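TASK: fixed-backbone design
INPUT:
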């Protein structure tokens, strides 16, 4: 009698797939009491057949699924046996009706598909059952089932579109605009702000000035808004009077140039009144110049500033003589005539003392105010001289006491960051000041002399010099020819003259006109005097071997279109400049010669061959600077025969011409001159001139040919300026040579 094995919904497992020696303990066992196994079948098993469930297992054989375990072994759960309450479901066991389907278990025929279970191949898709009405039942997640996709985000609520507001000012992230502050204070509305902005753009005025002119705000309200914008304290000059200590520290000249009024001074803290909140850079310069710990600005109205300025300095005119009298009366500094040692502490104390500071500051500010070009501090055996050069002529200032010589030199060195202990070697430095919003560059040079250190300061006030080729005073005909030369694609154009004749200013004016974005311009200078946007400028440094020749070699590898060499001093620099011109560059440079024709001889004397001069030089502009007649005291006069003879003129040659001179007034300090202008001589290379150069002709022969070719000489340019009433006969005689 055969026994039918119980129906097992799970297909038989191949022992070969389970592996020999599988650990029965690896089968998960439900918690709670062990279920009773089904009775084993005792029928004999054919050879090679799979062991029947419950049959005895040979030693070493893998346990058959469903076989009873040896004594002591935990009985494995039998598929199909009833499961105690609370026990975990057995994988592969049939599921009672209504039970939750086990993920991965085979589904009986006709059973509902398990959500997330794989569907057999070829099976028809299961229709989705309709959901009953009512609330959706919440069910827990099915183990092993994929997570449902995240719900789509809700669409954003529609934004209400507002009517666009025209040209409303927006905050920039920095300090607030003055218009925003005025609107925030309720002084003006937005419509008035837009109208004021239009007027300010069209007129070029400041917005606050426009608001005051329209009567929308008064000066006090504007000052309040400006103080809030710049975070500055508001001053009241009716209550804050200028104290004597502050007026003694800040002179009238200094206050006028820095646009401040000194109020109080205590513990190295100075308070000043200002009218322009953008003048804070001058406040910082004032602090550095006076060596103070702090300068506190107070913002006041323009009307109050003007009134207080008149009252504060009434009858207190600046005078170097008065200051020097105070220094001579002060005997605390000692009068050591012959110093053989250096006491650095004493020297620093003298250099930092208030009288020395006041004296140096007053000399600097007076020189800048009078547009001086140089300041000279010169020690002698018995006295100490101070002079400054205006319009090419030196004027002497009242001399300070001789015992202050070292203190003055040390103070200048400190300002220029030089070594005050080194008095045996020359030193060069630089001082930068900002006065009235204009930057003034001061080049300092010290030189050991027999009786102490001499110091000369070159002043470069960029607000005075206008780099405009049309304002150089060049004759219209000469200027047109010079423009043709500087616009040539290659060659060498030279500007010549003595030191201080304005050569650099002329070249910078030419480069400023040629400065366009399409061309690259590189300059090499010693030192760089004017910084121009768009030009690549290289300073010369002889200490590290950065000479004109070395710089020029590197410049040629920088793909330049136009090159400026500050000065041709030697044969090497001249040869490299010529090679640059021959390779397709236009080169500008300077030489020190008396006139244009002598430039050719000067280049030959350097060792440059004549054929190279003929091949590259396109033109030479020689120039001088002469003083202009003061227009406030200019008067006409008729010169005598002796005066005319000095210019090689006759009465017949000047018939109908006018001559002028300066009588002298307060504007020109009773000199009769105010300012300077240039006189020029332009040599243009021609075929005839090149032939003479090839024949090694002399300077006189070259000059005669140039004059016959139409060159206007320096003397002719000067006489022409005399007839125009621009300068005097004495100036032209002094600056030009007599033509034979």
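OUTPUT:
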């Amino acid at each position: 009698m055969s026994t039918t094995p119980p129906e097992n919904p799970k297909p038989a497992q191949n022992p070969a797939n389970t592996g020999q020696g599988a650990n029965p303990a690896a089968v998960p066992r439900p918690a709670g009491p062990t279920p009773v196994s089904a009775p084993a079948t005792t029928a004999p098993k054919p050879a090679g057949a799979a062991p029947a469930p419950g049959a005895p297992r040979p030693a070493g054989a893998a346990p058959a699924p469903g076989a009873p375990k040896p004594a002591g072994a935990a009985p494995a759960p039998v598929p199909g046996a009833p499961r105690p309450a609370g026990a975990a479901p057995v994988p592969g066991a049939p599921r009672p009706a209504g039970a939750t389907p086990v993920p991965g278990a085979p589904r009986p025929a006709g059973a509902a598909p398990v959500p997330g279970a794989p569907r057999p191949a070829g099976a028809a898709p299961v229709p989705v059952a309709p959901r009953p009405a009512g609330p959706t039942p919440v069910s827990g997640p099915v183990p092993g089932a994929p997570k449902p996709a995240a719900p789509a985000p809700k669409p954003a609520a529609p934004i209400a579109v507002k009517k666009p507001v025209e040209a409303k000012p927006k905050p920039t992230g920095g300090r607030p605009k003055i218009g925003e502050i005025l609107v925030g204070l309720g002084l003006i509305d937005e419509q008035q702000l837009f109208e004021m902005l239009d007027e300010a753009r069209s007129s070029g005025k400041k917005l606050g000035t426009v608001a005051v002119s329209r009567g929308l705000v008064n000066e006090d309200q504007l000052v309040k808004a400006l103080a809030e914008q710049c975070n500055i304290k508001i001053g009241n000059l009716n209550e804050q009077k200028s104290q004597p200590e502050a007026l003694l520290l800040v002179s009238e000249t200094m206050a006028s140039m820095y646009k401040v009024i000194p109020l109080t001074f205590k513990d190295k803290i100075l308070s000043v009144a200002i009218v322009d909140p953008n003048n804070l850079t001058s406040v910082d310069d004032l602090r550095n110049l006076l060596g103070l710990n702090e300068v506190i600005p107070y913002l006041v109205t323009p009307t109050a500033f003007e009134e207080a300025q008149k009252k504060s300095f009434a009858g207190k005119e600046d005078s170097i003589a008065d200051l020097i009298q105070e220094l001579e009366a002060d005997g605390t500094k000692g009068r050591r005539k012959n110093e053989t040692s250096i006491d650095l502490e004493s020297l620093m104390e003298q250099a930092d003392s208030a009288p020395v500071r006041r004296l140096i500051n007053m000399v600097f500010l007076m020189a800048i105010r009078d547009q001086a070009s140089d300041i000279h501090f010169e020690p002698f055996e018995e006295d100490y001289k101070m002079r400054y050069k205006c319009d090419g002529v030196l004027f002497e200032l009242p001399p300070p006491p001789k015992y202050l010589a070292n203190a003055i030199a040390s103070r200048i060195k400190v300002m220029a960051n030089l070594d005050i202990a080194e008095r045996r070697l020359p030193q060069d430095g630089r001082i930068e000041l900002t006065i009235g919003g204009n930057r003034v560059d001061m080049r300092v040079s010290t030189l050991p002399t027999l009786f102490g250190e001499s110091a000369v300061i070159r002043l470069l006030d960029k607000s005075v010099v206008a780099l405009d080729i049309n304002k150089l005073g060049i004759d219209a005909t000469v200027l047109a020819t010079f423009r043709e030369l500087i616009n040539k694609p290659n060659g060498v154009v030279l500007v010549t003259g003595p030191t201080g004749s304005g050569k650099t200013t002329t070249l910078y004016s030419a480069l400023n006109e040629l400065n366009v974005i399409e061309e690259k311009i590189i300059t090499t200078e010693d030192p760089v005097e004017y910084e121009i946007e768009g030009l690549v400028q290289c300073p010369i440094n002889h200490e590290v071997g950065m000479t004109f020749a070395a710089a020029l070699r590197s410049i040629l590898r920088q793909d330049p279109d136009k090159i400026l060499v500050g000065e041709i001093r030697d044969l090497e620099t001249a040869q490299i400049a010529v090679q640059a011109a021959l390779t397709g560059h236009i080169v500008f440079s300077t030489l020190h010669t008396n006139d244009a024709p002598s430039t050719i001889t000067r280049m030959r004397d350097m060792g440059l061959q004549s054929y190279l001069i003929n091949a590259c030089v396109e033109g030479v502009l020689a120039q001088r600077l002469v003083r202009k007649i003061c227009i406030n005291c200019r008067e006409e006069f008729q010169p005598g025969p002796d005066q005319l003879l000095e210019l090689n003129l006759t009465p017949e040659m000047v018939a109908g011409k006018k001559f002028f001179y300066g009588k002298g007034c307060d504007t020109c300090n009773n000199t009769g001159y105010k300012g300077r202008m240039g006189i020029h001589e332009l040599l243009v290379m021609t075929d005839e001139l090149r032939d003479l150069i090839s024949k090694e002709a002399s300077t006189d022969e070259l000059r005669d040919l140039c004059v016959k070719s139409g060159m206007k000489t320096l003397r002719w340019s000067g006489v022409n300026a005399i007839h125009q009433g621009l300068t005097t006969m004495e100036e032209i005689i002094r600056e030009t040579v007599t033509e034979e």
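COMMENT: The mean pLDDT is 77.
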